[in-house]
Structure formats: structure tokens, C-alpha cells
Design goal:
- By secondary structure, the protein is mainly beta.
- It has one domain.
- Helices cover about 15% and strands about 40% of the residues.
- It has three helices and 14 strands.
- The strands form two sheets. The chain has a ten-stranded mixed beta sheet with strand order 9-10-11-12-8-7-6-2-1-14, with helices on both faces. Strands 3-13-5-4 form a four-stranded mixed beta sheet.
- The two termini are about 15 Å apart.
Amino acid sequence: MIRKNKQKDIETTGTDADTSVDDATVDETELETLDADAEDVGTDLSKSAPLDRDTEGPLDEAEANSVRPYIDLGGVKILPREGLNLRLEVEESTKRIVAVGLDYAGSTLQVQPFAAPRSTGLWNETRLQIQEQIAKQGGTATEREGVFGPELVAEVPVVQGSNGAAGMRIARFVGVDGPRWFLRGVIAGEGATDPDAAAKIEDLFRSIVVVRGSAPMPPRDLIPLKMPASATPTA
């Protein structure tokens, strides 16, 4: 079935994924975009990625199997699977698609692909920026070694319920540096705390294909995302 929201939905045919569009403001409070203007803090700029990234993912377009039935979202391709719901997150002021949200097996995974230099990475520096942002909001972020390399486990302040009560949301921030791109993921729900659920959402992150393209792009620019060609907007 197609998940409804108060703005608009798109229907993707020929896949096992439900697809919808969320028209929502993306800001620092929700931690949905990188601060592209953050100061260079002189951190390690080497690439951070699993040793088997080029075979087990996340893959570059040149490394992926071209005959697999991917959902083409521009900067990323998603492999459909049973029970996967897909959302395109839209910046309200510009109507630009700024992130892909994936709901799967009791977890949520938000992904964003960014342009990166050929020989250096972004994740080592970006983790420090995320930690600083979370600390400013009154939360905490602890670094640990995960299946993709260093990741952050964070408690992020959120507003809960209709009465505006404050609460904390647990989220995992993961990142992988690829060939001229950087893929960031934010895991919430069961995948942030339960090992079995985490393995399922990590496998989903591994299956993503990043399409950098050949056009010149400044490092940290969001690789353009798009609505699937087979999607049809519905009221």
C-alpha cells in the first residue's frame, strides 16, 4: 500500500517499496543536512570505509550490477525488498529533495549522498561537526567502532506528544567515503538499539548504490536527488 501524508504521494510501480514524498522543512534541529559552511577544524581527512566496500557496499555506480531492479532516485539507487517503505524528504522553502527516508524492519534510515574529493574523505571531519551540533542542542554523541567504521551513537532532544513535552531520541550516525562521494546515514528506531534489527538496516545501507556522475561538484554539495521516473504523483 501507499503511505499517505497531508502533502502528496508518489506511487512507484514494479517494485516492493512503498514510496511517498514528505514536504517538510529540513534544519539543524532535525540534523537532516550537513553544515556545508562549517569551519575546517584540521581533522583527519583520510577516507573512512569498510575494507570490502567495493564488493559488499555501499557501491559506486561503476561497481553495481546494472541488471538489478534498482529504484533510480538520481544520486542514489535503492534495491527494493519486501516490507520497505521509501520517502523523499523535501525542503519546504525550495521544494528540493534533500534526503531519502527508508522505513524497514522496525527501523528508519535516512540517507544523503554528497560530492567529495577524489583522494580524501569527509566522514572523519563530519563526525566532529555532528557531535558539536548535538552538544549545542543539549544532547550527547559517543563515538564507537561499527560495521562501517567509526560511527556516532547519539541521544538527541526532541519534542514529543501534543503537549510539547521534551524527550530524547536515540540515533546512530554512520558514514562511508567512496570514489568522489560520501554517503551519510542516520539510523533510528529498533536499529539504533537492537542488534538483530541493526543487522537488517545495516544490510539495507550496504545495498545502496551512489551515482556521483561526471559533472564537477564542490565537495560537500548534495548530489541531486530526484523522483523515480515510474512514480506518479497522487492527490
